[in-house]
Write a structure and sequence with these properties.
Blueprint: E1 4-11, E2 20-27, H1 41-49, H2 53-56, E3 81-85, H3 91-99, E4 103-108, H4 113-128, E5 134-139, E6 162-166, H5 174-185, E7 193-199, H6 205-217, E8 220-234, E9 237-250
Parallel strand pairs: 3-4, 3-6, 4-5, 6-7
Antiparallel strand pairs: 1-2, 7-9, 8-9
Helix pairs in contact: 1-3, 3-4, 5-6
Length: about 250
């Protein structure tokens, strides 16, 4: 696919009249080695699903629409720390920073970082700062995680209240690597959550099932899950995609 610029409108709440935020993203030409240069439907669906956390989880997952002063301006939620794994073009992480008025660390592999950084900078004033959020970008390779106790570059925390991942499974090794990263970075707390959106592509169905099994084996359980439907855009049209989405927490904390 050729390089394109696209703007996504993401609701900040679950109501039909909830205000939206506009996020403009650059998507370089797509190659087989750089699948993170495309905003896949799972990312769009997960970004729109973020406000659900306020309904299915207790504080601190309160969207900016319910964080306000007497003037109805959003206030920051600096104690809420969010990590996105495999951020790609940055849609989910940028949306999370705005919706939760929180700090988000967006991560991916080195070839994806330049475009990811550019997209974050392009939206930081209009979508992130305007909603009292902050965002940073760093390299994180799930196959070579930093030593336990090491912070990600520029971060003040070792673990996160919310970990996000959209469309992260593309090889037989990914379920193990992804769960390793979740185990490392999801805070061991009864309010901590992991939220994921996975396309149910036939070729990767074994990886989806292995991922779920490894999550349970690691001591995590489903809070709520379901299926969704979206569309991936291609040069020759759109293809419908079914997805699995889920919110997980530590079972021992329940």
């Amino acid at each position: 696919m050729s390089s394109v610029s696209r703007t996504f409108h993401i609701p900040t709440g679950t109501g039909s009249k909830s205000p939206t935020i506009s996020i403009s993203l650059q998507e370089p030409s797509l190659t087989g080695d750089n699948l993170g240069h495309k905003t896949w439907s799972a990312s769009y669906l997960l970004a729109k699903r973020l406000p659900l956390l306020a309904q299915i989880s207790s504080s601190p997952f309160c969207p900016s629409s319910c964080l306000h002063t007497s003037s109805s301006d959003p206030i920051s939620n600096p104690n809420l720390q969010i990590l996105e794994l495999g951020s790609g073009t940055g849609l989910v992480g940028i949306a999370a920073a705005a919706i939760f008025s929180a700090h988000v660390m967006l991560t991916d592999l080195p070839p994806i970082i330049p475009n990811l950084q550019s997209n974050v900078l392009a939206n930081v004033e209009t979508a992130v700062f305007s909603h009292k959020g902050t965002a940073a970008v760093a390299v994180l390779d799930w196959s070579d995680l930093p030593q336990p106790g090491a912070r990600l570059p520029g971060e003040e925390v070792y673990s996160y209240d919310l970990v996000l991942a959209a469309d992260p499974l593309y090889s037989p090794t990914h379920p193990r690597w992804l769960v390793d990263a979740i185990e490392r970075y999801l805070k061991r707390d009864d309010s901590a959550r992991f939220m994921v959106e996975l396309p149910l592509r036939q070729a990767y169905q074994p990886q989806v099932e292995e991922f779920k099994d490894r999550m349970r084996d690691s001591g995590l359980r489903v809070v709520v899950d379901g299926e969704g439907t979206g569309f991936d855009d291609w040069d020759d049209g759109r293809a419908e995609v079914r997805t699995y989405w889920g919110v997980w927490m530590w079972a021992s904390a329940s």
